[in-house]
Amino acid sequence: MKNANRLRNVRTNSFGFTLVELLVVIAIIGVLIALLLPAVQQAREAARRMQCTNNLKQHGLALHNYHDTHKAFPPATINPGCRDCDDITTGNWDGNVRNTTFQLMILPFLEQGNLYDKIDFRYPVGLSAHADMTDPVAADATNNMNAIKDVHLDVFACPSDPGDLPGTNTSSSDHYYTTKYSRTSYGVITQGWDDNSHNPNLLWGSSANTSNLRPAFGTNGSSKIRDIIDGTSNSLLLCETRMTKSSTNYGPYWGTWTNTYWLKMTSGINSTYVDTTTGIDSKKPYAWTPGSHHPGGCNSLFADASVHFLSETADSNTLYNLAKIADGNVLGEY
Amino acid sequence: MKETSIQKTMPMLTRVMLFAILTISLGAGCLGRDASHPDLAEVTGVVTVNGKPVQNVAVVFNPEAGGHASRGTTDAEGKFQLKYSGSAAGATLGRHDVLFIYNDADGPANVLPRKYADQTASMNAEVTQEGPNEFTFDLKGR
Q1: What is the crossing angle of helices B2-30 and A19-70, to 10°?
Q2: Which InterPro entries does this UniProt record tie to the protein (chain B) (predicted)?
């Protein structure tokens, strides 16, 4: 009798689970799933970042192919309607504003030859022009604008960016004519020059375009690889930027120059705009600010067509030296 | 019978204890992250151009010893306060090169001389632990 009892005890012990055992197992499974779920989200972000890296790589290859064909990188913009550009003494383009961007010039090297062939580069591609400048004639620009507007190209947009919405500004008398143009995540970068206050500096080859401060790109002209004295692996061509900024007017747009087309490193990667009148942090970047929705920094294209991730906490002087092509300074870690 | 009941409760207790230890150690790994920035000191100041305050001037303090810059933007009275990152105010200790960049996409151009945006024309400031780190910069030019 006693033996039989023990036998039954052993059997229930080995073939059943107690409530606590079950609860512990369920809890462990719960913890493991809780660990896994954020990892799935991270895998998605990692995939998007990889695609973004590839977009920049395509820019790099296209720019190098352009360089092979034309013996120089394309100008960042040709005849932009920028502020004070009517004061430029030599090679003034007031009355001949075209707003052509480098992205349009490299289209054939991005397998977008059909779109490129629709654009007549003798005419404006957009109507942005500062009040200083004579506005482009709308009739001249119509065909080009019909070709470019409402076109979205994946290569110009980082898939992590939720702000990929077309522009809405319809004022053709101002320098923010963005309606129906698509934004781009990749912009030309300088150390501290922007296209509102520093247009004379940006004009390639001008006296203000000091050779040890200038970036790889310029207005109406750009560097050849031989101008990149710091070395192509130590100089930036493009940087990533968030599409949503503190004002919906702010660019860059790939189809046309509008004010705030450039980026500058002194803005600080991913820094946000604090309204100087109210003191409220908008949580969005100001114009000209490099950055991204990838955590911790942004992607960037170097002049050797390699793509690197720049940390937002990197040494600031190193970032400035990267943006300049002939500063002659020794680079730190980045 | 008494022996078997002890044998049954002991492993159960051990299991619960093990589970508790596991959860606590996992939790400890996720918490307790330290703020990852060096010692900072609060920095405020005023920027004027030819004696007059200017709004929307980005003030950038670049540490000469290397490191991450701190930034601030002037308000209507020319006052600024530096931020090291989105959450941390202040600047690293030591000597800084200071850049001034007019940062207004919709304001007039040429509010301050363009040379102040370059390190070659930079001004300097010494940020100390004791403070008071209040600086007044009067920029000359057009």
Answers
A1: 20
A2: Ig-like_fold
CA distance A110 to chain B (A): 31
Of B8 and A209, the structure prediction assigns the larger pLDDT to A209
* Number of structural domains chain B divides into: 2
Q: Are residues B9 and B66 in the same domain?
A: no
Please give the Cα distance from B128 to B132 (Å, whole number).
8
Residue of B nearest to A319 (CA): B68
- What are the structure tokens assigned to B98, written together? 């200071």
Q: Do B29 and B46 lie in a common domain?
A: no
Residue B41: both structure tokens together: 């000191």
Among A213, A227, A208, which Cα is nearest to A303's? Answer: A227
- Judge if B13 and B72 occupy the same domain: no
- The answer to whether A108 contacts chain B (CB < 8 Å) is no
- Please give the helix or strand (H or E) that residue B63 lies within, else none: strand B57-63
Residue B4 has pLDDT above 80, yes or no: no
pLDDT in tens, A257-281: 999 999 999 999 999 998 888 888 8
Distance in angstroms (rounded) separating the CA atoms of residues B111 and B77:
15
Q: In this complex, is the C-beta atom of A267 within 8 Å of any C-beta atom belonging to chain B?
A: yes
Alpha-carbon separation of residue A161 from A48, A52, A309, B42 (angstroms): 9, 10, 16, 34
- A207 touching B (Cβ < 8 Å): no
**Which range of residues forms the domain containing residue B22?**
1-33
Q: Where are the domains of chain A?
A: 56-323
**8 Å CB contact between A267 and A285:** yes
Amino acid at B82: L
Residue count of chain A: 334
Instruction: Output the domain CATH number for residue B89.
Output: 2.60.40.10
Q: Are residues B51 and B14 in the same domain?
A: no
| One-letter amino acid of A132 | D
Q: Same structural domain for residues B127 and B61?
A: yes
Coil/strand/helix, residue A175: coil
- E strands present in chain A: 77-78, 100-101, 186-190, 217-218, 221-222, 236-240, 263-264, 297-302, 307-311
> How many angstroms separate the CA atoms of A284 and A290, rounded?
12
Give yes or no for a contact between A82 and A133, defined as CB atoms under 8 angstroms apart. yes
Q: Is the dihedral of CA A100, A265, B75, B120 positive or negative?
A: negative
* Amino acid identity at B97: D
- Provide the number of CB pairs (under 8 Å) joining chain A to chain B: 107
ipTM of the complex: 0.81
Calpha distance A176→A129 (Å, rounded): 8
